[in-house]
Amino acid sequence: MGRFLLRRAVNYIVLVFLAATGVFFLASVSLHPEVNYLEKHPQPPLASVYTQLHAFNMDPRVPVTTRYWHWLTQLVLHGNFGLDWQGGSVGAEMGRRIFVSTELLLVATILGSVGGVAFGAWNALRQYKPSDRASTLFSYLMLATPVPVVAVTLRTLDNKIGSPIQYTGMYDPRVHGALAVAGNNIEHLVLPTLTLLLVQVTLFSRYQRSTMLDVLGAEFLRTARAKGLTRRQAVLKHGLRTAVIPVMPLLVYNIVLLFTGAVFTESIFGWHGMGEWLVSSIGYNDINSVAAVGIFTAGIVLVAGLLSDVAYAALDPRVRT
Q: How many domains does the chain have?
C-alpha cells in the first residue's frame, strides 16, 4: 500500500503541475485585467495602468512565457501565489476562502453522504411500497429543481413563517462575544446546509437504491441467509458494504468538488467561499486568483481520486490482493 500511495503521489504532483500550467496560460490569454482600471471614471492614464499591472505580474505587454516563469518560481520557491488585481495577497485570500467553504460544506457533505446511502438502501428494501414511491417522486422533483430555486424557496419560506433564523453571511457583525458569535454562526449555517443536504441526499439515494437492488438478488446474500443470518444481519453485514462500493467514487468526488461547485449556495446566502471567488475572479479578469483556484481544484480532484482508491480497497478485499 505504501508503494502504491507513493507512486500516486508522484503522479499527482506531475498532474497538478500540468493543470496549473494550463490554467495560468488559459487565464493569461483570455482575461484582460486592464479593463478593471479603464472602466473607472475618470479613466487613469494607460501608462499608469500597465505599470500597476506589471507590479502584479499581469502586464499584457509582457510575454506570457515570461510572466509564467516569474509566477512559477515565486510559487515553487516561496509559496507565493502572487497579488490580485487590487494588490491583495492571493494566498491569504485563498486560505480565508477555504476556511469559509470548509465550514459551510463539512456538515452538509457528511450528513448528505451518510443520509443518501442510508435512505437509498432503505428504499431498496421497501421496493414499490408507498414509502418507496413517495421518496422516488420527491427525489425526482428535487433533482429537477435547480439549486438556486431550492435556496431561494427556503429563504422565502423562512421569511413567510416569520422564522427568527438568520441566513445571510457567516454571522451577524452586531453580535459580540465568543459564545454568542459561535451560536450565531451555527444559526447562519442552517439554511445553506439544508439546501446542500436536500440536493445531496436525493442524488446519492438514487444511486444507492439502484446498486442495493442489484445486491439483494445476489447469490452471496442468499448464502449468508442459509448460514443462519437474519435478513437484516445479511443486508447490513454483507449487502450494504458491497452496494456502497460502486457509489463510493461518486460520494468522494462530489464532496471535494463542492468546494468550488457550491457557487449558487454561497452567493445566495452570502458565504464568500471558493466557489464564489472563482466566479468573481473571472468577472474581474483576475489572472492570479483564477490560477490559484485552478491549482486548488486540481489538487482536491486528485486527492479525491486517492481517497476513492483507498476507500475502495478498504471495502473490497480483492483490490488489496
A: 1
